[in-house]
Amino acid sequence: DELISQIAAGEVVERPASVVRELVDNALDAGAKNVLVKLMAGGVRAIVVEDDGCGIPVTQLPLALKRHATSKIASLGELESVATMGFRGEALAAIASVSEMSVASRTADAAHAHRLDARSGELSAAARSRGTSVEVRELFFATPARRKFLKTDATELAHCVEAVRRHALARPDVGFAIWHEGKLVDQWRAASVEQRISDVLGEDFVHDSRAFEHSAGPLGVIRPPGQANVLAAPRGGQGNLGRPGISLTGRAGLPEASRSRADQQYVWVNGRYVRDKLISHAIRSAYEDVLHGQRQPSYVLFIEIAPELVDVNVHPTKIEVRFRDGRAIHQAVRRAFIDALAQSRS
Ligand code: ADP
Ligand code: MG
């Protein structure tokens, strides 16, 4: 069983950055306003993620570490409309099976925090304010084959920082800080969308890009950007508003920009960072259409779509999604970029 869970963990936990991503997902699902990430040796030696979210009741702590235990959906039907980052109930169990993990947490009404050590199952009193701290040490210590595949600490650190960056861009309302070996690497205070993009991607990026806002179809059940992960989607909200639609916002990098960077291409669907061939194709074709070239544009694109129109349960790491109506998405994305680029020329 230990072996099976370690194999399963391989699908979720590839490297320190995967751990960072899952733990920050959980912090955001818990309604955190501040998320602190502390790393040692690129995250291989230690990853600590602290949040000021709702915390885990002590009675639920052991359950939270069990496989397929999630507090986020109660039935398969709810998967259709999942509004949280997590829902598979796999991450904590998977991480625990390939590391030394402990979780300390405190809810608002608890007299103090509790810490649960994953390996020993030992529960002890701990000191912290409301929220949760997850500590992950010695990743892959028991699976040397996997550990061998890790790159240098500097490279693993860069991947960890990138994971936080993706969260930070999607959630400007939340403050983030990343520490490595006791030194502050990056810090982003809660800000407007525009300011956060500038803080994370640089003033140049904002200067050399055009904002766009595009929607297709009635916007019945779409949640405002930035709140996508905290609030549950209103059930049946589309009711008499007709078909749910798509909202696209973001910034399209301009061709005039001297440094156009392929490493600044970001797409989120309902707050979740994704990689999607259909979407990148639509964007590339817009650039080709308007500008006859510019193959490596920089861009950020936030897609908000009714959760029932997108399947997020395609891949264990949830980086891939499947749209119910891929053609409509392709068209809307293409249109949004064409409009932004055409505008910038006039
Ligand atoms: P999932 O996020 O898919 O539900 P996880 O294994 O990531 O699965 O987490 C299991 C459960 O532990 C969550 O459903 C949640 O109830 C709880 N949990 C994990 N991390 C936190 C956190 N930072 N704050 C509050 N609750 C948490
Ligand atoms: Mg999770």
TrEMBL record:
Q: Which residues of the full protein are shown?
A: 19 to 364 of 650
Q: What does this protein do?
A: This protein is involved in the repair of mismatches in DNA. It is required for dam-dependent methyl-directed DNA mismatch repair. May act as a 'molecular matchmaker', a protein that promotes the formation of a stable complex between two or more DNA-binding proteins in an ATP-dependent manner without itself being part of a final effector complex.
Q: Which family does it belong to?
A: Belongs to the DNA mismatch repair MutL/HexB family.
* UniProt GO MF annotations: endonuclease activity
Enumerate the UniProt keywords alphabetically.
DNA damage, DNA repair, Endonuclease, Hydrolase, Nuclease
Regions annotated as coiled coil? none
- Name its species: Pelomonas margarita
Give the DNA mismatch repair protein S5 domain ranges: 197-342
What gene is it encoded by? mutL
Cell cycle: present as a keyword of the record? no
Q: What is this protein called?
A: DNA mismatch repair protein MutL
